[in-house]
Automatic annotation (TrEMBL):
UniProt-annotated location(s): Membrane
Lineage, broadest ranks: unclassified sequences, metagenomes, ecological metagenomes
Protein name, per record: NADH:quinone oxidoreductase/Mrp antiporter transmembrane domain-containing protein
Similarity comment text for this entry: Belongs to the complex I subunit 4 family.
Main location: membrane
Species: marine metagenome
Length: 490
């Protein structure tokens, strides 16, 4: 069945639900309503993921702005964004379950979570550059409040740091968007790659490419622009950590793929070695710092820096090698990292609710008391280090196979990063879950039903994609090949 306006529904259902929560509901009902809204949203995103090939889901309102200023309300979807929208729907539900026990200012918490979901879908579906930028910036607001109100530790500092870093990155991006508009006369992202080569730009195209990429690199995050991430993650509430790692970092990867690679393929090929180098630095540096962490959330935050390095390595292979394979690997890494890290943060959040500590040396011996959390922690950990049979393996091996012909040395060094990953993940699991039982954890209970559901959802997606990756990777490949064959792409 074709549903007209489905992309608008996917954006505005969570946004309108957020308004309803804020205006009409109180704590408990807000929670239930938010859950229902998220379930509907997951169904919608699932439908978009499955049906986007059969129907043209594009939507255009050209009369949105006066003629002199050609901004359109233009939404579309392809193989690159479809899986990311599905990921947003999946983690949206997970984040609602993760917040089930939030007791202070409950309704506001769910309002911001719903708003965040809608805005992120907006980022992934916008095909008008200014609309894209609007959603890109709007995403900051819910995240800022989620961290600064419901966080722990130095939450205001971390929220501000997140805000300032992202806004500085976005400033470069906005300049880039305006330069592109000045040169091509359009904000239509589907036309820009054709129009760019023949347009006269007011700055060298290399610098333009750099400006756009900086905006995305802050989000991904790329060393040395990554320092906001460990703070934001460590102090964020569980739901915000899940969304931050699961979806917001993917906005950076999506931007690099859609804009830096899609609109500036020549520049990407020229500077591919820089991307490969930065990717390797991310992987090794991220892993090396992760090994020294004793706070569970900080550890996973630094591991995200490491894992996002693989995305850079995959993108760098556009300059040579098996292009679409490595890029599919990069896109797949974004998807799988979302589910795996989402599960890690979710489990850590639940364990923290029970034990009130995230300090690894203080934990230990929890396996007997918490079999469900232990299973979920072990599954997520093994997926994170790339165990065959989990989705983490598929994405990393795809990147290695695709990038090796282009950058042999970088790929070999990156493979050592996997060894480091195995070291810190196994160390973390061993120290926090196994070992002798602790006296003070004697009375601790295991997962409730509300906690088993999101854990189950994520485990199924991790193992499902691990066993049958084509379900997601074929969609990505198709989108990437369309993009690589676009006029003006080579």
């Amino acid at each position: 069945v074709e549903i007209p306006g489905i992309l608008s529904i996917a954006i505005f259902l969570p946004l309108i639900s957020a308004v309803i929560v804020a205006v009409f509901l109180n704590g408990k009902t807000a929670r239930g309503f938010a859950l229902v809204a998220s379930i509907v949203e997951l169904v919608i995103t699932g439908y978009i993921f499955i049906a986007h090939k059969q129907y043209d889901m594009s939507e255009k309102l050209t009369t949105w702005f006066p003629e002199s200023f050609p901004v359109q309300y233009f939404l579309s979807i392809d193989g690159i964004s479809a899986p990311l929208i599905l990921l947003t729907g999946l983690l949206g539900i997970v984040s609602i379950f993760a917040s089930w026990n939030v007791s202070e200012r409950t309704k506001e918490h769910f309002m911001w979570l719903l708003a965040l979901q809608g805005v992120v879908v907006g980022v992934f579906t916008s095909m008008d550059f200014l609309l894209f930028f609007l959603f890109w910036e709007l995403e900051l607001i819910p995240m800022f409040f989620l961290i600064s109100i419901w966080g722990t530790g130095r939450k205001e500092y971390s929220a501000m740091k997140f805000l300032i870093f992202t806004i500085l990155g976005s400033a470069f991006m906005l300049i880039g968007i305006l330069v592109i508009f000045a040169g091509t006369g359009t904000f239509d992202m589907t036309k820009i790659s054709e129009a760019l080569p023949s347009s006269n730009l007011i700055m060298p195209v290399g610098i333009l490419f750099l400006f756009m990429s900086i905006g995305f690199a802050v989000k991904l995050p790329v060393f040395p622009l990554h320092t906001w991430l460990p703070d934001a993650h460590t102090d964020a509430p569980t739901a915000a950590s899940v969304m931050l790692a699961g979806v917001l970092l993917k906005m950076g990867g999506y931007g690099l793929l859609r804009v830096s690679a899609g609109m500036f393929p020549d520049q990407l090929e020229k500077y591919a070695w820089v991307l490969a180098l930065l990717g390797v630095i991310n992987i090794i540096y991220g892993a090396a710092i992760t090994i020294r962490q004793t706070d569970l959330k900080r550890l996973i935050a630094y591991s995200s820096v490491s894992h996002m390095g693989f995305v850079l390595l995959g993108l760098s292979a556009m300059g040579g090698g098996i292009t679409s394979l490595a890029m599919t690997g990069a896109a797949l890494q974004m998807f799988t990292h979302g589910t795996i890290t989402g599960l890690l943060f979710l489990t850590i959040g639940f364990i923290y609710e029970r034990t009130h500590t995230r300090h690894i040396p203080d934990l230990g011996g929890l396996a007997r008391r918490m079999p469900v959390f232990t299973v979920s922690f072990v599954v997520a950990g093994l997926a994170s280090l790339g165990l065959p049979g989990t989705s983490g393996f598929v994405s990393e091996i795809t990147i290695f196979l695709g990038a090796f012909p282009a950058f042999k040395l970088a790929t070999i060094i990156a493979a050592f990063g996997v060894v480091l990953t195995a070291a810190y993940i196994l160390w973390m699991i061993q120290r926090s879950m196994f070992g002798p039982e602790r006296e003070r954890f004697a009375q601790i209970g295991d997962a409730t039903v509300v906690q088993v559901i999101p854990i189950g959802l994520l485990i199924v997606s991790i193992i499902g994609v691990g066993i049958y990756p084509a379900f997601v990777s074929n969609v990505f490949t198709e989108g990437i090949e369309v993009m690589l064959n676009m006029p003006g792409a080579n």
